[in-house]
């Protein structure tokens, strides 16, 4: 739709402009700690540039199938990107954590739209549900007021903004090039073709990657994980177990330590 | 799906969402009334029995009470204290209510409806908002962990020490009990071989053995953990009135408080749904509901009625427990989670995994009937062994002596020196 409105601009130019705009916007939005009206104006300007950059990325990207699908995808991905920007731009650590949670929900939504149900829900369970709650705990307990100055400013605003934007540009360029010419092995069938063809219920049958109509995704994922990638899964499991035992050991030693302190205090 | 309307799936989904949300909200209102009747019955008084039809003398046993209560709390002043963090203060009740309603996208509220050709529904229509979701159990788990945010943010944004302590306590409790909850879930998922709640119900209906009988230890662990997740009475520390005024919603009033209370109630309803669906056979009842696909409306309605009756029974159990048990202390609560429920849950998981792995060999060696019996009896042996071990080895819950960093002799030393 937007691509029709801008027929003369090549996608590469558009992408480059979007990346530049994103870098400038991020740089302006990162908290600098001057305070006052000037910074507020700069942040507004940065937000505006960021919005322009997002529009550019959307225009440079490919369209999905139906209008509804496109709308849902754009909504969740915009939630993810905007919240991610707000995470690094916000001054209060607690707010940053909340924005990060929202960004994770957006990413989970993108994964759900793309048909990766297990990954999407696992993202919520692991990151938003467990890790980030721990972060919030620490933030709230350690700094109830959130006023420590080193937590409220960005240390390297220019370098980090440029690095982030360049990374974004390179990723979308390479992924865009990959997806514009899908190799013969992994061509994603159109939805209409998938509906028209009879569905195969056999778990062992070869499937096309990324088919959103596969209903037994978890069974397939489990088969894949514990078939081809069995060694990696086992190694990761052992690693996590070691980390668990290590953390218990650290805590136990800390307990001994306070036990040693008590008689010393009594002797003094 | 061959239908005359291309938008039919969307319409069906919207109708289901409407029915579910409307039903849940009404049910929550009337369950509050039931809870007050139950409280009155336990305490030997009459309870709310006055409000009937307004402006008449008709009382209807007090059935108008939920409407009157709801209107009153909605029309109260929506007061925002000056010292709160306004954005998060407003967001917290919305987050918790949205999460506790969205959970029901993956929870079936019946078996399914027979085909309705007049509307273009040629297949059996499952009574589930998102039937294509292959990760139902995980979805429930994920959203119940999102609900923690509402509690934590509400407590923090209130900028009140009671609210903050309540929020921290509550989120520590929720995070701790998610682990035994997950272990209880995993046993059922292993046995049924699916993360979909309707498949889990079908598996119990097909075999005729509810998972509460096949995995007694898992059932107990899950039951206790879901009481804690719903913050019902033996575990209602987040809002221990004597210590924390109102817990994380101390500073809330009016409709925001209502959202918190409804969300808390929905947590209990969710827990009841999960207990019934995963351990008590869902819509299945021997000799009444059958187990195959739904062909007639009678079967569909009977299954719906059986599921609802079971859920109501579990909710009544929740309410009865509330008036029968004293509250845990915080260290008792944490000891129970980490030193009792976690090992028991692991024992159940290992038992179930072993039985499921060796079931074919068992059936081949002992014959069908004998093999099944052994597979059914073994978890009960583990259950009783676990029970005895828990009774003998776990920390005493009634020990009230303070833990001293120095022994009594050291204290005497210190006193003598000063």
Structure keywords:
heterodimer, A: 10 helices, 73% helix, disordered N terminus, B: 418 residues, mainly alpha, two-stranded antiparallel ribbon, 2 strands
Strand order of the largest sheet of chain B: 1-2
Instruction: Tell me the domain tally of chain B.
Output: 1
Number of helices of chain B: 14
Note the beta-strand portion of chain B: under 5%
Sequence of secondary-structure elements of chain A: HHHHHHHHHH
Order of helices and strands of chain B: HHHEEHHHHHHHHHHH
Please give the largest β-sheet of chain A: none
Average pLDDT of chain A: 74
Map the helices and strands:
The complex is a heterodimer of chains A (268) and B (418).
Chain A: H1 2-5, H2 11-29, H3 36-60, H4 67-89, H5 93-113, H6 117-142, H7 157-180, H8 191-196, H9 217-225, H10 230-267
Helix pairs in contact in A: 2-3, 2-7, 4-5, 5-6
Chain B: H1 8-42, H2 65-75, H3 86-102, E1 112-113, E2 125-126, H4 136-157, H5 161-192, H6 197-207, H7 211-214, H8 216-229, H9 241-244, H10 254-279, H11 297-322, H12 330-366, H13 368-393, H14 408-417
Antiparallel strand pairs in B: 1-2
Protein model, in words:
The complex is a heterodimer of chains A (268) and B (418). With 268 residues, chain A is mainly α. Chain A contains 10 helices and no strands. In chain A, α2 runs antiparallel to α3, α4 packs antiparallel against α5 and α5 packs antiparallel against α6. Chain A is globular and about 50 Å long. Chain A starts with a helix and ends with a helix. With 418 residues, chain B is mainly alpha-helical. Chain B has one domain. Chain B is 66% helix and 1% strand. Chain B contains 14 helices and 2 strands, in the order αααββααααααααααα. Chain B has a two-stranded antiparallel ribbon. The mean pLDDT of chain B is 84. The chains are: A mainly alpha (268), B mainly alpha (418). Chains A and B meet through α5, α6, α9 and α10 of A and α4, α5 and α14 of B.
């Amino acid at each position: 739709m937007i691509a029709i409105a801008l027929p003369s601009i090549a996608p590469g130019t558009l992408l480059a402009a979007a990346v530049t705009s994103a870098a400038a916007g991020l740089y302006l939005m990162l908290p600098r700690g001057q305070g006052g009206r000037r910074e507020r104006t700069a942040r507004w300007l940065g937000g505006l540039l960021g919005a322009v950059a997002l529009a550019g990325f959307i225009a440079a990207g490919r369209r999905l199938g139906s209008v509804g699908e496109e709308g849902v995808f754009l909504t969740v991905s915009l939630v993810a990107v905007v919240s991610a920007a707000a995470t690094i731009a916000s001054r209060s650590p607690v707010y940053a954590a909340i924005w990060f949670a929202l960004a994770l929900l957006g990413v989970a939504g993108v994964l759900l739209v793309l048909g990766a149900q297990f990954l999407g829900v696992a993202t919520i369970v692991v990151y938003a549900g467990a890790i980030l709650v721990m972060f919030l705990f620490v933030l709230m307990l350690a700094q109830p007021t959130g006023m420590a100055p080193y937590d409220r400013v960005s240390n390297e605003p220019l370098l980090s903004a440029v690095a982030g934007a360049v990374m974004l540009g390179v990723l979308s360029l390479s992924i865009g090039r990959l997806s514009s010419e899908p190799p013969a092995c992994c061509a994603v069938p159109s939805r209409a073709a998938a509906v028209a063809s009879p569905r195969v219920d056999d778990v062992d049958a070869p499937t096309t990657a990324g088919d959103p109509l596969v209903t037994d995704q978890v069974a397939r994922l489990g088969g894949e994980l514990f078939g081809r990638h069995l060694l990696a899964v086992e190694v990761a499991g052992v690693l996590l177990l070691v980390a668990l035992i290590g953390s218990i050991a650290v805590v136990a030693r800390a307990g001994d330590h306070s036990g040693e302190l008590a008689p010393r205090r009594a002797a003094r | 799906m061959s239908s005359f309307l291309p938008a039919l799936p969307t319409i069906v989904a919207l109708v289901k969402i409407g029915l579910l949300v409307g039903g849940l909200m009404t049910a929550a209102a009337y369950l509050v009334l039931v809870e007050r009747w139950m409280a009155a019955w336990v305490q030997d008084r009459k309870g709310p029995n006055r409000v009937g039809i307004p402006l008449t003398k008709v009382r209807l046993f007090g059935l108008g009470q939920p409407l009157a209560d709801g209107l009153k709390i909605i029309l109260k002043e929506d007061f925002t204290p000056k010292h709160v963090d306004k954005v998060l203060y407003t967001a917290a009740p919305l987050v918790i209510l949205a999460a506790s309603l969205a959970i029901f996208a993956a929870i079936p509220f019946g078996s399914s409806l027979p085909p309705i050709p007049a509307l273009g529904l040629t297949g059996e229509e499952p009574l589930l908002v998102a039937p294509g979701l292959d990760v139902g159990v995980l979805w429930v788990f994920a959203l119940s962990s999102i609900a923690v945010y509402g509690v934590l943010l509400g407590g923090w944004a209130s900028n009140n020490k009671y609210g903050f302590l309540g929020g921290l306590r509550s989120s520590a409790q929720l995070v701790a009990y998610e682990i035994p909850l997950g272990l209880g879930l995993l046993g059922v998922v292993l046995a049924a071989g699916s993360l979909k709640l309707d498949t889990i119900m079908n598996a119990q209906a097909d075999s005729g053995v509810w998972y509460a009988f096949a995995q007694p230890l898992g059932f107990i662990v899950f039951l206790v953990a879901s009481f804690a997740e719903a913050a019902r009475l033996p575990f209602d520390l987040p809002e221990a009135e004597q210590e924390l005024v109102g817990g994380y919603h101390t500073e809330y009033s009016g409709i925001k408080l209502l959202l918190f209370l409804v969300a808390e109630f929905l947590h209990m309803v969710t827990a009841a749904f999960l207990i019934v669906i995963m351990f008590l056979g869902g819509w299945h009842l021997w000799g009444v509901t059958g187990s195959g696909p739904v062909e007639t409306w009678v079967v569909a309605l009977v299954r719906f009625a059986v599921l609802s009756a079971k859920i109501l029974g579990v909710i009544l159990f929740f309410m009865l427990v509330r008036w029968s048990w004293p509250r845990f202390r915080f260290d008792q609560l944490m000891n129970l989670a980490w030193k009792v429920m976690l090992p028991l849950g692991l024992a159940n998981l290992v038992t179930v995994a072993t039985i499921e792995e060796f079931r074919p060999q068992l059936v081949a060696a002992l014959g069908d009937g004998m093999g099944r019996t052994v597979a059914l009896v073994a978890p009960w042996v583990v259950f009783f062994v676990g029970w005895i071990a828990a009774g003998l080895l776990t920390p005493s819950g009634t020990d009230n002596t303070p833990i001293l960093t120095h022994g009594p002799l050291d204290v005497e030393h210190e006193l003598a020196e000063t």
